[in-house]
Amino acid sequence: MSAYHPLTEEEAIDLARTIPGHFTEQARLSCREIGDGNLNLVFQVTDESSAQSIIIKQAVPYAKVVGESWPLSLNRARIERQALEIQHRLCPDLVPKVYAYSDELAYTIMEDLSEYTIMRKGLIDGMSYPRFAEHIGRFLARTLFYTSDLGMNQQEKKELAGRFVNPDLCKITEDLIFEDPYRHSANNNFPDRIADEAEALRNDLPLQFEVALLREKFLTHGQALLHGDLHTGSVFVTPESTKVIDPEFAYFGPMGFDIGAVIGNLLLNYAAQPGWNGNGEELSTRQARLLDMAAEVWNRFEAEFRELWDKDLVDEMAKTPGYQDYYLRQVLRDAVGYAGCKMIRRIVGLAHVADIDQIQDERIRETAQRQALAIGKRLVRHHRNVNSAEDLLQLVYQTTPEKEVSL
Ligand code: SR1
Ligand code: MG
């Protein structure tokens, strides 16, 4: 019989004491369950005198956001832990360290990041993160390159991919991102005020054609080990430092999916900013900063990825002239398409974002929802024609009438 059960706070404290080099035997430890995500329990165990703390993250056998009617495999805790270990090996300064784990109890004990802020919250508050694009560009380039057929032994890659078969979590993405928003679905969640937008999505066959192409790539294109859910709630930041957490959706998929997740979430915050700042000048500054950041994420990723390719390529055929440019152009186009899909799902699908939903004024919130949908749809529609980060920005400008520019 399985020993699995949800941990109590007392058990979490007992576990924390077993981690070597953290707490003295006399330490007075306290524990809080701080999980506010959709899927897991998160215990923070703190030594009251030294304020040292660690995190114990435990999966529950269902989607917390919905309840026990939506069962989910506990295997995702093992997948998340192994993804964290790989990502930490490739980017030690950008990923929390794993101290211990139990696959049976589906928990991972890891470094606490209590001095950091969840990026989504920081962006809502108008904070600036000048190092973020450089950090996430490096995270994306290194994790995607070194787990792809370009950067790792191709037989070993197939073995590794076998350990990251993640059907339950992929199914969430396949349904919530690539299907529900375009159908009548009990999972969907949007206010009556934008029911016209949801209806338009259901009737927009050219848009659905583009989504079908992106969905097919998500289903079949095992290009590299993805984080799988790289939104701004999966990133802890300070102005100087960045840490990527929560890779439980990890699987081998198209690189553009991770890059698009980052860009789409920056653009969701861009669309939401009028709800967080009425001051015209400050609003323009924040929005310009977000657009610069979105473009820089791609530019930093691309520059670093090209460097790794030139230095550490293992695939002889990939040295063929022109192939690197072609490959990266496809990744950019995928990223733009996935960014758009991610924006659309956060407005009409099951799981939303605080950037938009917590805007107090109903009319400003509605405008932000419509703006996010307009950007998302435009990115999806035109993703196959994009050739640069500048083209991505042009698509965003085209959804703002006074900034209309032709692509
Ligand atoms: C049922 S889980 C809903 C969403 O939360 C996660 O963060 C993923 O984005 C997922 O789609
Ligand atoms: Mg998560």
What does this structure look like?
Helix 4 packs parallel to helix 10 (280-312), helix 9 (255-272) packs antiparallel against helix 10 and helix 11 runs antiparallel to helix 13. It is globular, with a radius of gyration of 21 Å. Strands 1-2-3-7-6 form a five-stranded antiparallel sheet, sandwiched between helices. A three-stranded antiparallel sheet has the order 8-10-11. A two-stranded antiparallel sheet has the order 4-5. 50% of the residues lie in helices and 13% in strands. The protein is α+β, with helices and mostly antiparallel strands. Residues 403-407 have low confidence and may be disordered. The longest helix has 33 residues, at 280-312. The chain has two domains: 9-111, Phosphorylase Kinase, domain 1; 117-397, Aminoglycoside 3'-phosphotransferase, Chain: A, domain 2, CATH 3.90.1200.10. It has helices at residues 9-17, 75-90, 119-124, 132-146, 154-163, 167-176, 195-203, 205-220, 255-272, 280-312, 323-348, 354-357, 362-382, 389-397, and strands at 29-33, 40-47, 53-59, 62-63, 67-71, 98-102, 107-111, 117-118, 224-226, 235-237, 242-244, 251-253. It starts with 8 loop residues before the first helix and ends in a 10-residue tail after the last helix. It is built from 14 helices and twelve strands. The chain binds 5-S-methyl-5-thio-alpha-D-ribofuranose and magnesium ion (MG).
